[in-house]
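Hello, quick one for you while I still have it in my head. Could you read through the record and tell me how the tokens relate to the sequence? No rush at all, and the record is pasted right below.
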Amino acid sequence: MTNHLHQGDLPAGVTLKGDIAVDTEAMGLNNKRDRLCLVQLSDGNGDAHLVQFAQAPRSSSEAVAHVHYDAPNLKKLLADPKRTKIFHFARFDLAIMRHYLGIRITPVFCTRTASRLVRTYTDRHGYKEICKELLGVDVSKQQQSSDWGAGSLTREQIDYAAADVLYLHRLRDKLDEMLSREGREDLAQSCFNFLPCRAELDLAGWENEDIFAHG
């Protein structure tokens, strides 16, 4: 396994095959306030590619909403409609990349959404928990709350960020089997199809309101 760290964009010479596992790291969990710092990618071959974004220059009066990163190679890969992008909690990642990269990402598979649909015997749907149960892999979350906006990432941060994409293909395969077994694959696909719209609703101000509720 090799972890590759790139600055500002995915190099043109990097070729990733098939479906792509994707994750992000940001300064916090408010995707309109906390800037996108890192995008992690893997095609399931054991390597990870991390694209780090420096603080975008802007005037003191410029709103964060106007800041977009110029990363054409990364954007082209993520926007490819022929590749499924595999996430854990896609709702957050789709929204923050829409906000900072200006792209709408489809099609998607979300392991957290799949887990909630099929692992109804538990309320533990975090990445660490499903990796442990379904793959027998212990994933450390020690660096989760570290400073992702730092100019230089530590080796521990790089390894942590890479681990968040290295197992997503295998998790998808396991969860697909469970969804098929329980007859919920069509329901799951409908949820995945809606996730980009869910991200748009979050960015538009409906993140805490159920627009389908009566009243």
About this structure: The helical segments are 72-78, 90-101, 111-118, 127-135, 155-166, 168-181, 185-206. Residues 115 and 144 are 21 Å apart (CA to CA).
